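ok trying again, last paste got cut off:
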Amino acid sequence: MNLNEQPLSADYKYRGRIINLRVDTALLPNGSSATREVVEHPGGVCVAALTEDGYLLFVRQFRYPYQKVLLELPAGKLDPGEDPLEAGKRELREETGAEAARYESLGELYPSPGYCGEIIHLYAATGLTFGQMSPDEDEFLEVEKIPLEEAARMVLDNEIADAKTQAAVLKVYCREKGL
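nice, full thing came through this time. structure:
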């Protein structure tokens, strides 16, 4: 069975610094059409940086849409055309002051595929050395180290709400446990 939908038209309603919003008309597999609302986003990265003694580096950051501080792994938005691994290295250094000797891809995450085209690239980072943080001018963070096992428990107990952080923590935990 063909499940593909073909775009027939695209009407941009908003073009912003971070996202664009368009309303498409799509041809459905049965020949009828439907309206699809799409948020275009350049994508992002998330880095699970694991210390030699088994701690993950986290940041606490106020997230405006939720009006609260969230606990997250270091992460950020890709610049158009930017290599995801290079962006991950940049974000880790800016947000925590850490640099890693080794990076391993943990795959991609589609945070909300029903309406958003964002792809978040997940990485594990090891062999850490530490220098100075250099967050963006509008970025206010607190760095926190949490043991990997405690972080996995926090995900399972719904103490960490951020989806990219949940996925990366559990992937690193499973990898470290040989699962």
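cool. The first strand starts at residue 6 and ends at 15. DSSP finds three helices and ten strands in the chain.
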